[in-house]
Write a structure and sequence with these properties.
This protein has three helices and twelve strands. It has 203 residues and is mainly β. The chain has a seven-stranded antiparallel β-sheet. It has a three-stranded antiparallel β-sheet with strand order 11-10-12, with no helix packed on it. A two-stranded antiparallel ribbon has the order 6-7. It binds fe (iii) ion (FE). The site of fe (iii) ion (FE) has 8 residues, from loops.
């Protein structure tokens, strides 16, 4: 199996946000789609270990901000590579607006936002699929949506070519390069927290 085939599934990139009490949080996901049109329902798939998933399980509400092609890697660092359990991802960040449901949505390099109320949750093992009825939303710009494939080709930092005695593995998700004699099976990327299976040996 060549796992790279999965990168050719044409999915987008989104900041999924939630609010529990006064705590606002968000994470990056690549799996949002419309599932019905009457009423308008969308699905959002999130890893259960994400704090945002936990918050949505409790509050049954979320916003989705659709990331466009003007996005900088820093947006992914802010929302994708840290946990809302440890940090306030909105600390010092002004590129937000508050949706009618009280949840922040991101206005930096996003072309639309949608606010939705969860009506069903499907447990698929490592992830929850939230099925939600759309309550609000707006178009924020006319820029093209960033696809997952676009992220890998244009937004993620490309590994620099340097000569080295040691072998090197690159994280396919964030571009982090590990150098050593071998890559331990239980290695976790220090930047994006993805496992060793998401690393690829560099020539
Ligand atoms: Fe990584």
């Amino acid at each position: 199996m060549n796992n790279n085939a999965l990168y050719n599934i044409n999915c987008g990139l989104f900041v999924l946000t939630a609010k529990d009490g006064t705590k606002q949080n968000g994470c990056i996901i690549n799996t949002v789609m419309q599932v019905t049109s009457s009423p308008v329902k969308i699905s959002a798939t999130v890893n259960k270990t994400n704090f945002t998933a936990e918050m949505i399980m409790k509050t049954k509400q979320f916003c989705v901000s659709c990331i466009d092609e003007s996005a900088d890697f820093s947006l992914f660092e802010r929302f994708g590579f840290a946990s809302g359990r440890d940090v306030d991802k909105f600390n010092g960040y002004n590129e937000i607006k508050t949706a009618e449901n009280g949840i922040y949505y991101v206005t930096e390099s996003t072309n639309a936002y949608i606010g939705a109320k969860v009506v069903d949750v499907i447990d698929v093992g490592t992830h929850y699929i939230f099925i939600a009825e759309v309550a609000e939303g707006d178009v924020l710009s006319d820029k093209s949506s960033a696809s997952y494939s676009y992220y890998h080709k244009n937004i993620k930092p490309q590994p620099k070519k340097i000569k080295s005695e040691k072998s090197r593995w690159v994280c396919k998700i964030c571009g982090y390069v590990y150098e050593g004699d071998y890559l331990p099976d239980d290695f976790i990327c220090p930047i994006c927290k993805h496992p060793a299976s998401d690393f690829e040996k560099m020539e």
